[in-house]
Write a structure and sequence with these properties.
The structure is a homodimer. Chain A is α+β, with helices and mostly antiparallel strands. Chain A binds a DNA duplex through helix 4.
DNA sequence: TTATATGCAAACTTTTTGCACATGC
DNA sequence: GCATGTGCAAAAAGTTTGCATATAA
């Protein structure tokens, strides 16, 4: 049914890891998720269907997926950490007012990697590209209201 | 003498903030610093000349400089936080083995901002661009040794 | 069957906060 | 002189760890 979920499960199996209900539950929250959730947000979401899961298990699963290169862990300056199942090079537009993060696919990012590898003898494995500012919604709002800003 | 230090001190004065010995000490550590130090590393460095300073004061000073846009606070996925007095758009090459961070000035980053602003109605204030991989030194080393990897 | 994973609670790390005292302007 | 800043210590927040029990393969 969900080929992306199947792909994640296969990757676990191929790595010699068990495919447990808890891991499936976390994967289901992540598949196709563009909201860049925190560990706790993932935990709260998973608990709806799987009330007995612990936050520690969520952290352990995210750590596992991160090590397998299937999830990016994004640490922000206010020490919030968000997770992104989208690991291809892309640009994150981070709104400083409402905290919303929008993904933008910009082809020039790939050439950036090539330029650096040619010029500096640095072997690129992955990347993280962020612009901070105001999203279109917040730009047009009259009054600034603090929110969950990453 | 140090015009960059003077510039920082002027910025504090213009913001209505006091120029204290503690703040000067932190600024001296930051001026021209390309090592992307952590708060504790800055604290340890400052203590050599200023043994009575507290870590809380270092944090408060960094917070102030961050709010004034004079320092970037870089949160990483292993919850280490590094500070960079270099606020112009540039690329950080982060070595996953030894933790070294190299600055690279790539002009295409500026056009990236323009492309995004034109295409997406997002108002860019600042940016953060990172490539993760192996630096030239670590590429040529035979055995992997874990280190302070951001 | 058995190596691996889970849940719990405690530990840990890093950063923030409240407050009395000190000090730059 | 007074608003602002400092140092201390305690609190907060987020993440990790140890271990007994449970379970996927």
């Amino acid at each position: 049914m969900d080929s992306e979920l199947e792909r994640f499960m296969d990757i676990l199996r191929e790595g010699g890891y068990k495919v447990t209900p808890q891991r499936i539950a976390v994967l289901k929250v992540l598949v196709g998720n563009r909201t860049h959730p925190s560990a706790d947000q993932i935990y709260q979401e998973v608990r709806k269907e799987h009330p007995m899961i612990s936050l520690a298990t969520v952290y352990k699963t995210l750590e596992l997926l991160k090590e397998m290169g299937q999830v990016m862990e994004l640490g922000f300056s206010n020490r919030s950490t968000r997770y992104d199942p989208q690991v291809d090079p892309h640009l994150n537009l981070v709104c400083l007012r409402c905290g919303f993060i929008e993904d933008v696919y910009e082809t020039s990012l790939n050439s950036l990697t090539n330029v650096v590898e040619d010029a500096s003898n640095f072997e690129v494995h992955s990347g993280r590209f962020e612009l901070y500012g105001l999203c279109s919604t917040c730009r047009s709002e009259p009054v600034a209201v603090a929110a969950g800003v990453p």
